[in-house]
Every structure is written in C-alpha cells, then in structure tokens.
Amino acid sequence: MEMKQSYWKSVLFITFFAIPFLLAAQGGVTGNVTEASEGLPLPGVNVVVKGTTTGTTTDFDGNFEITVGSFPATLVFSSLGYANTEVRVTGVTSLNVTMEESATGLEEVVVTGLASSVKRENLANAVATVSADELVGTTSQSTVDGALYGKIPGVNITSTSGAPGGGFALRLRGISSINGNNQPLIIVDGVYYNNVEIPSGLRFASGANRGNEENSGNRLADLDPNDIQNIEVLKGSSAAAIYGQRGNAGVVLITTKRGKTGKTKISFSQDVGMNKIANRLGIRPWTADKVESVFNAAERAKYEATIAENGALYDFEDIIYGDTGFITETRLSATGGNDKTKFYLGGSYRDEGGIIKNTGFDRFSLRTNIDHRISDVFDFTSTTSYSRSNASRSFTGNENDGGLSYGYTLAFTRPWVNLFPDANGNYPVNPNYSGNPIFVRDKALNDDSNDRLVQGITLNTNILKTDMDRVKIVTSGGLDYLANQTYVYVPETHQSQVQPGPGGFISVGKNNFTQLNTQLIGVWNREAMEGNLGLTTQLGIAYLYQESNLVNSRGSLLAAGQTSVDQSVNQVIDQFRSEEKDFGYFGQVEGNYKDQIIATVGYRVDKSTRNGDPNKFYGFPKASLALNIANFDFWSLESVSQLKLRAAYGETGSPANYGSTFTSLGANNIGGNIGQSVVGSKGDALVKPETASELEFGFDVGIFDNKLSLEATYYDKKVKDLILTRALPSSSGFTQETTNLGDLKNSGVELALKAFVFDNENFSWNSAVQWYRNRSEVTRLEVPAFPQPGAGFGLGLGTFFIQEGQSATQLVGNLNLDGTGTKPTKVGDVEPDFQMAWSNNLTFFKQFDVSFLFQWKKGGENLNLSTYLSDLGQVTPDLDTPDGQARLVSTANAVRFVEPAGYLRLREAAIHYSLSRNAVENLFGSTVEGVKFGFSGKNIFTITDYSSYDPEVSVNGGSGLSTGIEVGPFPSARQFFFSLNVNF
Asked: Is Ion transport among this UniProt entry's keywords (predicted)?
C-alpha cells in the first residue's frame, strides 16, 4: 500500500515539475500586426504555423493568439495586397509584426469567377490590372477609358473625338464582330454599366448619313476615374467565358474605393489646368501670284485688300481651334470604419473647357460605398453613385454640305475672307462654302446632359464555417438608370438655313436607359489540409434586363428667334424602344494543390431575347491550368522566385443586334388612312449568337524576389457565325437579310516586363514595358466580298472591305493597276504592326516623385479624308510641296489619302513633391497628415508622319469597324495641370 502511494506521489511530482517544460515545448504566441506605411493595425491577417494546418486570424485591432505545437517554429503572416511575412519563434513570446504592401502584385486578388478570386501568382490567364495610382496617380484624367492609354497590353484605344468628355473606342484583342458590338462589357462593382453612344439628331441638320457620325461621347464619361480602386481587364474569351454571351469583346471589371477600419480620414484635392490644341496644321503659304494662278484675278484683289487692311491673312484654324480651355476639378472624400461598418464617401466636380469657344464638359459626382457586418452569418455591401454631366460639343465630323462642320467649312474657306460679324452683329455669308464657321461657333448649339444613378448591393450569407469548409450564398443586384437629353439648334439666320432653305433647325432628344442585373451564387471553399487539394466551387444563376426609350423631336422652318420644336412648321418625331432579357446558369470549380498546380473548369449556359429562339440555351465552357514550377519541392534555383506555365481555353458569345430576329413594319399614310407595311430588311428567326473560342498560352517569370518579372502570352481567338447582311432578290419582297454568314479569327502576342530597378531609403525606381500585336483574318464568308456599310465612304474614296482570307480591318479602294479596269484593291490596314508602352516611376528621398509614360504605335494606316476636303478647297498647307502636287494629279483617291498612322507619344508625365512629416506638423499641426503638390501633363508631344491633327481618329464613333477613318475631327488637345492633395 505504501509502495502504491509512493508511486503516485512520484508521478504527480514529475508531472508537476514537467509542466513548465511542456508549456515551453507547446506554447502560445501572441502579438500584433500592423501595416508598414502608416502603422495602422491590420485585421483579418492569416497567421499559420508553417508546415501545419494550425492557424488563426488577427482581430479588429490586429491582435492574434496562436498555439504552437513545438519550438522552434515559423509563423507565416499573409493578407491579400501585402507581401507574405515569415517570423521564426523559439519559445513563448509576444510579437510585433509589420507587413509591407506587395510591390510585385502577386498577392493582389484577381477575379476568376462571378463570386471568387485568386492571387495573381496562381492565375492561369493574362488578366491586366490597373491600380488607382496607375490610373490617376500621374495626372488628372477626364474619363476612365481615356486614362487607360498605354497601361494594358493587348488593348487598342482610339479617340473618336477630341471634345471635352471624350469619345473612345476600346478594342480588346482585335475585332470581335463586323456588324455587332466591339466595345467590352463594363461592370462597376457588380453592376452592368451602360456605355452607350447616344445620337442627338444632329445629322438631320448637317446632312450626315448616320447616327454614329454625330461626334457623340460614350457614357463611361459619367464615371469619375478618381473613385476607382482598381480595374481588371479580361481581354479574351478564355478569361471572360464566365460572362457568357455578353463577353465576346472582353470584360472590364471596375472596383471603386471602399472604407478601411480605423479613424476617419479625409482627403481633399484640387486640380487646375488647361487644354491647348496639340497639333496645328497651319495655312498654305499664299502669295498674290499664287492666289491668282490657283483661283483668279478677283480673288487676288481680295487677297491684296486683306493684306493691306490687316497686315496678315485670317488664320481660321487658330480662330476656331485656338482657344485655351481652362480646367478645374475639386475632390473631397472620407473613409473610415470599425469592426462592424466601413464607409467611403466621395464627391467631385470637374469643369473642362474646350479648345473651341463655347465647348466644354462638366461632371458633378457623388458616391457612397458601405460595407456592414450584420452578424457572423450576414454581411452586405452597398455602392451608390449619382452623377450629372453636361457637354457642349459644337459641330465637327462628317456632313453633306450642311455648312456646320468646322472640318468642311475650313477646308473651303479662304484666309483672305472676313467672316467676323459687323457692328450690328450681322455675320457675312461665306462666299466659298455653305456655312460661316464663326457664326456656327457663336450661335449654333450641340449640347447634351445626363443624369445617372447606379446602385449595387450584395448580401453574403455565411452558412457554414469550419476549419476545412466555408459555404456561403452571394445575392447581388444592380441598377443603372441613365436619363439623357440632347439639344441641337441652328438659327434660321445661318446661311444654309435661310429661306428657301430649311429655315432653321432644332432637335430635342429625351432618352432613357434602364439596366437591371441580379445574381444568386452558392460558393463552397474547401481548404487544403495537410497539403491536400483545396477546392472552390460555385454555382449560380444570372439575370439581365435592359430597356431603352429614345425619343427625338425635331423641326425646321422656325419662327424668328424661337428655340423650341413647337415653334417650327415642319415637325418630325422619331421613337425607338427596345427591351432585352438575358438569363443564364453557370458553374465553376477551382482546384489548388499547394500553390503548385491550379486548375479551373467551368460552364455557362445563356438564353437571350436577342437570339432567334429566345428560349434556347447556348453553352460556353472554360478550362485553365497553371503550374507554379518554382513552388515545387524540387525547385532549388533561389534567384528565380517565380516560374509559372499557364494555358486556358474559353468560349463567349454575342447575340444579334436588337431587331435582327424579326421583320420590322413601317407606318404608311395612304389617303389619310394609317397602315403598316414591311420595310426592306428581313428578319431571321433562326439567327444564332456569334461565338468566340479562344486558346491562350503563356508563362510568367520572376527573378530576385520578383524584382524583375516577365509575363508572355500568345492567344488564338476564333469567332464563328458572324452576323452579316446579304442582299436578297427583289422577288422576295425584301432588299436584304441579316443572318449568320461568316467566321473570323484574331491571334496575337502580349509581353509585359516589370523591373524594380532600385529600392532603398533615398531612391526608388520601377519601370515597366509592354509590347503587343494582333492580326485578324476573315476565314469564312458566305456572301461576295463587300464594303462594310456604315464604316467608310465607298470604294471610290476607300473603305473597310470584308473579304475572305483578308484582314477584317483592311482598307480597300477601286484601283486600275493592270489597265483592265478598276477593281477593289487593298490600300492599307488600320491594324498596327505592334504597340508598345514604357512607364517609369522614380522617388527621391521619399518626397520627390517623377513619372512618365511613353506610347509607341508602329505601323497601321488611316484614311485621311480631311485632306481630301482641303485639297478640293485648295487650302491644304502642303499643296505646294512635291507630295501635295502628286496628290493633285493622282486619279486614285483611295491611294492619295491613305497615310501611315504610327507615332511616338509622351502620353503622361509629372513631378510631385510631398512635404515631410515634420514640415506638415510645423505648418499645420496634427490636423493635417500629408500635403502633396506638383505639375503634370497629358499628350505632351507626338512624333508622327501623319499629316493631320492626330493619328488616333474615328469618324464613326466607337462601334463597329470605326477606327482609322478621318473626316473633319474635333482636334486633340494637350493638357497641363497643377495639383494639390491634402490628407486629414
């Protein structure tokens, strides 16, 4: 008995004595995690014991506590947007850990599904990401699309108008459609965003042919670029397949700024700048003898009288395009939050004057973004924005002798003719053309205004959360409502309007657009345990509703001095209404094995009321594979920190344009009886969506902890079932039919090289180079080759020509090369040989920031019909040179006016200075946290052989095959700014 008691006493003594040693071998580690830039606590940081599944996360104040199985051990701290941090611990301790923002971007989240994302280092597609600093950090930006120049490989951006408020055509990996939409799908915080171009009715006054010739802006201009946190661009079908039949032209995902936990921070910024014409053409070097030889003795007398009276000719280019447009933009934002609610509030007002008197753009914008955690089960996000924008775009672009477009009037206006008003305010008649450009500038109006409300909301329901599994349901919805008004007014005293002419013109448009989208998605995340495969599975449904109602009322023969439609005699009302519905199911599974092998498979099925059979579902599969070779156990080359091979395949679609599936009826009035009759175009009830399939290969290499990285991608994209128009025999009762008649393909290469050249206490320098090219080909065509309607001006002048075996962007004109007669002949191609961009950011002593961006476009041609007009008017500046004389004697217009459109441009440059912390405290005390100011510019200089205002040009807006044809554009401008930023 005594021996048993002695035994248990010994056991208790040994156990009690061993407890401290056991605690030392298996103990708790506590600590706090902060971010490096401002020392703020970081909530939600993952803390894992390396080599185990033991982990925790930091709380709202950045604190954590974790049990370590044995010492020594390594703790791995990871948080999206920050570089991973490893800390070795040898015993029970308390740690203070600081995490740096990820300079290489490998930790940033990239969207790969409608409710899931991965780190960039695991991405299997070449998804481009543009941060807020890259977007607006260098210089002030008017519009989002204009701010993307040179920042995304594989994206071709063309300005469709130099007017304030923009007008841009975005092409992601080439042309995706001939008749349909080539602009990418834009989604802002989960809301489908309408980027429509809205015709104003201007063509009915100017005599232009089509609504896309009216110099309209696109409505991405309603979004303030300064509200954006980042932009992700899904350039091809392999990345955009999850968006189904809306993703054929690519997808642009825009995420706006959100709140951060911590004290409320207020930011104020003020930009002051100016617009100046970027490139002047000048006037022809006239002499008295030359005036007489070109025109006649009477014109010589007028020339000599003007020289005698004024001492110089009238420079109408400077008179019309020579204004200095002043720009101001004021921004104020606040951000903050706690463990329950985070918020971002932002407001801005931009007022931008144009280089033409009485032109300009202004935008007032308000935004409220809220994140709220209701409980451990429910949380939601809300994004609300309202904007009011106004634009005065005046009169440029194509017309048919309407006497309004400056490009036309200047082409025929002789510089010795006085067109200024007399003392009584009467404007003289232009003796050489149907309009006086000074009258148009001062008296005619071409305005629009836009009220826009965008609301998005997402509710997350966390159903299950264990060590291995997390299941949630994501319910989201979005509303985009746009109310647009257009107003065009040409007084009855305009010389082409004076009776017996139209007697004045007025057009008023009331245009409303409503888009609703909703999604319901279930997501199941299964964590990798003990090195096993981690899975993310999602299933969902999506619905999209679009409604538009465009009403245009116009009248001519106005009562004297009246500016409303009801005060006109000849009145016309047009109305266009459309309603579209899309519905789809989708599913996707992502697998991740130890960050070594990452694979994704997915499928989406969609139906649309724009398809021939609105109830038929079309399928769009996707699959991708990424191999992070440098993460495999056998990898021992420490200097190569990343080596990833990737491949992806995906399909997307694009339904027919609204109305293509049915035969329209037109109203007729016969003997006072109203009826309807069939119009010329026959609908096709069997039309299928255009479908793109893309195969993408690439690799990513990172050297020296990714201080030097290269991303290389090759893609091959095939678009089948192109929706084209063919002629029908008159016996059918129709003139044409729109249906599936062809195929095309795009292939290209994209390279992106980034280098963190220096990074030390007093000097840092990072640099990036992008290089990309695309080639297109029409691979099948069931109709004879044809000039694309609405994309040019016929084979006599040169136009886009759709031809099997040829580029979809070729320019063709009638030439007689062999003496047997004229035939369609290729004279150029608007597709560049390649494009390249080089950006640099340098910081000196943490206070001076210098940045610049060069963009190089090699090759590609434009059809310069502005020179065609000025040659007809005999005023082209270079007409007395050998090139000019050669144009005058040439009989082939399509060759005369095709010009190389390559360029090298300093797109952006800036220098900024940040006050030191001590200087800020000495000047402002503790109220102000930071002050930064500096100077910047856009489109600072351009080196090009192109003879007109800007090699980036499109007379036909941003839709279809629009780029590369010029007729009297609104010239591009240089912009220079002084900026002040103050943070409280």
From this structure: no
Q: How confident is the model at residue 36 (pLDDT cuts 50, 70, 90)?
A: confident
Q: What letter represents residue 393's amino acid? A: R
Phi first, then psi, for residue 713 (nearest 5°) are: -140, 140
Residue count of the chain, please give it: 984
Residue 373 half-sphere exposure toward CB, CA atoms < 13 A: 13
What string of DSSP letters covers 267-296?
EEEEEEEEEEES---------HHHHHHHS-
CA nearest to 742, candidates 772, 711, 771, 778: 778
Q: Which residues contact 784 (CB under 8 A, 6 or more apart)?
A: none
Q: At what angle do helices 865-872 and 882-889 cross, to 10 degrees?
A: 80
Q: Is residue 724 classed as helix, strand or coil in its secondary structure?
A: strand
pTM of the predicted structure, to 2 decimals: 0.91
The whole-angstrom separation of Cα 975 and Cα 645 is 42
Q: Name the nearest CA neighbour of 837 among 108, 142, 148, 106.
A: 148
What is the token pair recorded at 255? 């995420």
Of 323, 318, 321, 493, nearest in space to 415 by CA: 318
Exposure string of 201-216, with b = 16+ CB inside 10 Å and e = fewer, is: bbbbbbbbeebbbbbb
Q: What is the pLDDT of residue 27?
A: 65
Q: What is the pLDDT of residue 672?
A: 67
- Neighbour count for residue 133 (Cβ, 10 Å): 11
Domain boundaries defined on the chain: 2-99, 128-281+318-783+830-860+901-983
As a whole number of angstroms, the distance between CA 848 and CA 934 comes to 9
Cα dihedral 902→903→904→910 (10° resolution): -130
**Lookup result for tokens 């930091």:** 58
Tell me whether domains 2-99 and 128-281+318-783+830-860+901-983 share a fold. Answer: no
Cα–Cα distances in angstroms (integers) from residue 405 to residues 192, 394, 501, in the given order: 35, 9, 18
Which are the contacts of 587, defined by CB distance < 8 A and separation ≥ 6? 537, 538, 539, 540, 602, 603, 604
Direct distance between the N- and C-terminal alpha carbons of the chain, in angstroms, rounded to an integer = 78
What are the pLDDT digits (tens) for 599-636?
999 999 999 999 989 999 999 999 999 999 999 989 98
Q: In CATH terms, is domain 2-99 a member of 3.40.1080.10? A: no
* Contact partners, residue 98, CB within 8 Å, separation at least 6: 33, 34, 35, 36, 39, 85
Burial of 652 (0-12, 13-18, 19+ CB in 10 A): buried
Structure tokens at 839: 């950006």
* Class of CATH domain 128-281+318-783+830-860+901-983: mainly beta
Asked if residue 390 lies in contact with residue 362, where contact means CB atoms within 8 angstroms, the answer is: yes
Q: State whether the Cα torsion 887-890-891-896 is positive or negative.
A: negative
661 near 682, Cβ under 8 Å? Answer: no
Whether the Cβ atoms of residue 833 and residue 858 lie closer than 8 Å to each other:
yes
| Backbone φ/ψ region at 112: left (φ over 0), alpha (ψ -120 to 50), beta | alpha
Lowest-confidence pick of 153-167, 399-413, 444-458, 524-538: 524-538
Q: In terms of Cα–Cα distance, which of 234, 232, 222 is closest to 198?
A: 222
Region for residue 754 given its phi and psi (left: phi exceeds 0; alpha: psi -120 to 50; beta: otherwise): beta
Across the chain, how many H-helices and E-strands are there?
13, 48
- Annotate 454-488 with DSSP letters as a single string: EEEEEEEEEEEE-SSEEEEEEEEEEEEEEEEEEEE
750 vs 771: CA distance, rounded Å: 6
Helix H or strand E encompassing 866: helix 865-872
